[in-house]
Amino acid sequence: MNKKLFLTKSFAVALGTLFATSCTQTDNPAGIEEPVDYPIEETVYEDVTAKVATDGWGGGWCATQFAPAITTSDGRSAQMMEKYETTVETTGVLLQQTINDLENGTYEVEIYANAFFTDGRGFASDMADGAEDVAYVFANDEKEFLTCNITTATTINGIYAFNVDVTDGTLTLGLGKEKAGTNWHTIQIKRLALVKTQTRLLSEAYNEVMPEALELAEAPMPAELKALLNELINAERSEAALAALKDGVKLAKEGAAVYANVKKALDAMKALVDATNVYTEAAYNEYYGKYAQKFDSGLLTEEDIKALQNPDNVTGWHDAITVDNFLLSAWDTNPDFVDAPYYINTWSVEGDNDGSNFRVPFFEYWTGDGASLGERTLTATLNNLEAGEYEVSAWVRVRAKNGYEAPAYGISLQANDGAATNVAAGTQVGTSQFFLDNFTATGTVGEDGVMKIKFIVAADNNISWLSFKNVKCVKK
Q1: Of 38, 37, 29, nearest to 226 (Cα)?
Q2: Of 117, 191, 302, 460, which is least surrounded by CB within 10 A?
Q3: What's this model's pTM, rounded to 2 decimal places?
Q4: 257 vs 376: CA distance, rounded Å
Q5: What are the residue ranges of helices labelled H in 60-197?
Q6: Which candidate, 428, 435, 430, 429, places its Cα nearest to that of 463?
Q7: CA dist 293 → 179, 396, 397, 421 (Å)
């Protein structure tokens, strides 16, 4: 593996622990070379039967009377080559020839061959007629047993076929015996054909990996991986280049999986951003904007990917998160939980189980279940708005404290100096102490362009937990 591939593999492994789900995107980042198309070659058979001598079978002679003449695939008429013995005890190779100067590759071999015991000629055999464990034909290391008969002549020659690999330019064909039983043996070549050369084998191997490589080249992934994959796709073909391409495909799959999960995280972040407009421009760019732009350009770095957090994921209690810096950017609280009067909750799961779907992340102002919240006004400030009348909306949930007497009360939503809206008057969630609804307050922005969004918690309230999300400010 070259140094670049090794470094990229380390990079991909470092990214692999970030996310756990997938999605699909087919954009090819700008500036990346388009992969070339490699057509699949057809299998070609080159008949090289002429390289086999019909009279070249060592250990035999021409059988002219008791076995039919044959025709080779290259059109030569010939007799079977014979070896006759007056014993059935001989074992090992009986007839063979070696063909030299062959192109390395895979060959199809077809051989005419027969093996018999000639009864009634003064010696005996224990072989059963039709035995298939006595004599065999072979091509290099490949062998196949013949059907051996008891007879003194034949009108049909057996035909046996092999696929055999030639790696050193030589091929040895022949007939032998595994054990005693036969005494009359005949052999001749029928066909020898080159199925594919080493070049074709390499092409076939490329054709196995190339479709996946080309598909991956269109998938989003870290820019460094995509550039490397395209380089490997377009590299001059060789065994070493093929091995590197296979490694590159594996890494690209890992990178594409990481990017798919990055896309899911960015989609969740986009949904969160779209659900509110109460934030600062700087917080938007830091939390979402810069990553979305880099993703679309295929330029996310390792550090970028490590920094991304899917806001839909439930975390541990007060875990380090980034969504709070975004959501709280316009509000008067400390996003780092240090002496924070209210903060972003990313760990509660009751909304997943009570049918409300009021899920994290959400704003939280909380105290003990049996106590009332302390008097406080939670304020967000928006600047540079056009003068006019605005509606401020929010999805609000309150929990009445233990032992409360209905109704829940004591919290309101106000936009600038407009009329306050009671946000404790939501619909009860099942039989719980939670009350939930969407609420709207109306207020006027003056020439100063400022909107103050306020959740006002009165001193007299019976609420132990205020939660809200999806706060929006829209001009009427």
Answers
A1: 29
A2: 460
A3: 0.56
A4: 46
A5: none
A6: 435
A7: 77, 32, 34, 39
